[in-house]
Amino acid sequence: MDAQITLRIDGDERSLTVDTRTTLLDAMRDRLGVNSPKKGCDHGQCGACTVLLDGRRALTCLALAVAYDGAEITTAHGLADDEILHPIQQAFIDYDGFQCGYCTPGQICSAVGMLDELRAGHPSHVTASLTSLAQLTDEEIRERMSGNLCRCGAYANIVAAIREGVVA
C-alpha cells in the first residue's frame, strides 16, 4: 500500500509517494537523494542514520516514513547556516573528530541533540544528581553519545570536539 507524504528536510519541503513499509532513511536516501544520514547497520545499533526529527535526535533506519508525514528533519548538512558551519561541525574539523567520515553526520546530529537534552535537564545514566543540571564531563559525553559508533575509533577526538563545540 502506498501513501503520499510530505517531509521538511533541512528547510525544504519535499513530497513523495512511499510504500507504507519504507523507512525514513530509505525515503530520504533512495527517493529524495538526501545522503547525509548513512545506512550503517540498518538495525538502530550504530547511529550513522541519526538526524534531528522535530528537534530531537532519532534513528531514521527504525522510523517508518509514513509516521513522520509533515515532520521537520534536520540532517548534518542542514545544521550549517549557508557557508557558516554549526559550532559542533567546526569543532569536528578543528579537533579531527573523524577519520573515514562515514559516521560523522550521525555523530554531529547526535551531539547537537544530546546538548539540547542536557540543556533541558534530561539526566543520563551517569548524571550525578537528578535535581540539578548535569555537568558536561567526558564521562557524560561518552554516555550520551554511546549509541553512535565509530569504526575508526576516533572517540577521543569526538569527545574533545563536542566539549569544544559547546564553548564556541
Describe the structure.
This is Xanthine dehydrogenase YagT iron-sulfur-binding subunit. Pfam families: Fer2, Fer2_2. It comes from Actinopolymorpha pittospori. GO terms for molecular function: 2 iron, 2 sulfur cluster binding; metal ion binding; oxidoreductase activity, acting on the aldehyde or oxo group of donors. Pathway: Alkaloid degradation; nicotine degradation. The protein folds into 2 domains: 78 residues, Roll (Ubiquitin-like (UB roll)), CATH 3.10.20; 81 residues, Orthogonal Bundle (DNA polymerase, domain 1). Helix content is 33%, strand content 16%. A hairpin with a 2-residue loop joins strand 3 and strand 4. Helix 3 crosses helix 6. Strands 2-1-5-3-4 form a 5-stranded mixed β-sheet, with helices on both faces. It is an alpha+beta fold and 168 residues long.
SSE diagram, text form:
Elements: E1 2-9, E2 12-19, H1 24-31, E3 50-53, E4 56-59, E5 72-74, H2 76-79, H3 87-94, H4 104-119, H5 138-144, H6 155-167
Parallel strand pairs: 1-5
Antiparallel strand pairs: 1-2, 3-4, 3-5
Summary tags:
168 residues, alpha+beta, 2 domains, 5-stranded mixed β-sheet, 6 helices, 33% helix, 16% strand
